[in-house]
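Supplementary Methods, section 5.1.

A reviewer requested that the exact input to the structure prediction be made available. We therefore reproduce it here, unchanged from the version used in the analyses.
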Amino acid sequence: DRIPEDIRGPSGAKRRFLGRPVLILKFKMDRIAFATSVVMRCGERSDPPQVSRRSVMKLVSSCGAFMLPGPLKLALADDDRIPEDIRGYASRVNSFSLPNGFKFVVLERGVSPTVSFVTYVDVGASDEVAGKTGIAHFLEHLAFKGTESIGTKDYGREIALLNEIDDLNEQKKSITDQQKRKLSAIDEKIMSATAQAEELVISNDFSRIVQQEGGVGLNAATTIDSTQYFYNFPSNKTELWFALESERFQKPVFRQFEKEKAVVLEERKLRVDNDSVGQFLEQYLMKAFDEHPYRRPVIGFEQDIRGLSRADVMSFFRKYYRPENITFGIVGDTSVDEVRKLAEKYFGGFEAGEKSSRTIPEEPVQKQEKSLVMKLDSEPWYVEGYHVPAFGAPEYPVSYFPHQEQEALHDWPCAMVNKATSSLR
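The structure derived from this sequence is encoded token-by-token as follows.
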């Protein structure tokens, strides 16, 4: 009874929400579709474990109503294959779009005075070009560095120094190995300008504001097809979320660039280079795909990350972080009318711009089995993958995974082939 009624489901239901696998669907309507599974480790129990309201809200914000376009929402509501207690959310979801293309999906749920926010950007590692892998993930890191008014002591002086550093890095590209003295002089100028710019930075200012105003769960994630930013606020800070989120996506400043690049390289070293399973999975995907960008790691290749410039990231941002590619999921103690009013105030001024184009290489049809064997310092691992139809295709089965062993799949949202999802075991 400590769990809210809309989470527990109807009284006397044969299946309990917290006692069985739960399907969380994330939909890509115009490109590659994928589905992930999260399994609760509760089993079928008559005494449900203690679950914090925060964890329930986080689960609901993910699966209750996130990213459901109108036709799909109706399809889910009428689809007998989807559990009833999940289908019930579809009828309670409201959505609207601004003239410039921003989309808002809202679920009013006033069980506590909090609101969960998700900014879903329809761009990921598959949108990168060869030679510049890792840029989507790097951008996710830099999105927390602040804006023209957040994270700086003097934006005018700072941006002048950042532009000077960009110009000097461009000059380095034309210098040959024989011009070592000239290269050394440029490096000294870059170091000097970087040190001066660093003195003008207020580190972690964006995060400090969120935490100071009661925000929790501030984080982000990049996948092969999307980038998501999320955190929770007390409901009386809803307008602050709109103000912060609109500013960081309208006036971002990618400061402390080289310092954050070192952080990303260290992350790659931790997750891939110094991790046997990470090495194995990276090679596995490269084996599974011949042409499609799913073969490349989300974090990027080391050489590509080292070669990224601030101009590269800004170009990627301007191309893909456009209103047409961004959907906001909002769940909690708010109303559609309030969200619409604030959306028009803070996001209505963004320019729609030209629609960004995407060219995803077609993966050749696989006609024979592929295999990969690696000898690494690791416990035995076995992965088996299949090319299957995309979600939305007539032959795609909508189901949820019945075994806890499938829990590992939640980290594999799109592991197999062009316009396809995967089945792994």
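Confidence is low (pLDDT under 50) at residues 10-74, 399-425. These observations are discussed further in the main text.
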